[in-house]
Amino acid sequence: MKLWIYALSACALTASLGGCATVTRGTTTRFKVTSIPPGAAVKTSTGFSCEATPCSMKMPRKEEFDVTVTKTGYVAHTQHVRSVVGGAGAAGVAGNVVAGGLIGIVIDGTNGSMNDLRPNPLSVALEAAPDAAVVAASAEAGPPKNAPAPPTQTAASVTPAAPTQAPKP
User: Fold this and answer.
1) What residues make up the domain containing 67?
2) Are strands 77-85 and 115-118 parallel, antiparallel or unpaired?
């Protein structure tokens, strides 16, 4: 009988050390990024990146970070992503009150398992760069028709520069 009590106590202690949110949700989550137009590069301030949207990255729930979305010909967009206690994280805390106790609450609170990243997914509508349309149009069109040729400089038209000091006698 004593053996059963020790075994049950050990199981209860082991279950409480993990924390409910840690066990059910984990400390990481999939962070998704989409953009209009697709195919933009994504880089986070924490060092994660992906080459082309739409994409997703496995991110720690605990950390806040900035996301920069870039694409050639478009203005770069930077967005701050927060780490906040989510609805499922609050349910994990409630589970700790029932089964895990104070130890589970502390563990879940410090490792970020009860947090969610917001916004997630992140959807970005990129704006065309102001000069991109002008540069693209002028490159395709070439030089204007009937435009005078740019002036050319010949050796005869170049005048020597005046000396800056008078010669010494």
Assistant:
1) 15-128
2) antiparallel
